Amino acid sequence: MFLMAGIVLLTIIYMLAADALHDGSALPLKILGGKFQSTSDLCDLPTKTSGPLLQEAVEQCLQHQRALALNSLLNRSLLALLGLTVVAFAFGYAMAGRVLAPLGRITRTAQRVAGSDLHRRIELGGPDDELKELADTFDEMLDRLDRAFESQRRFVSNASHELRTPLAINRTLLEVQLADPDASPELAQLGKTLLATNERSEQLVEGLLLLARSENKVVDKKPVDLSEVASQAVDQTREEAHSKGVELRGIRQQVFVQGNGVLLERIALNLVQNAVRYNVPEDGWVEVATEPQPGCAVLVVANTGPVVPAYEVENLFEPFRRLRTERTGSDKGVGLGLSIVRSVVRAHDGTITAAPREGGGLVMRVVLPL
Question: Which residues contact 335 (CB under 8 A, 6 or more apart)?
Answer without folding.
Answer: 319, 320, 321, 322, 327, 328
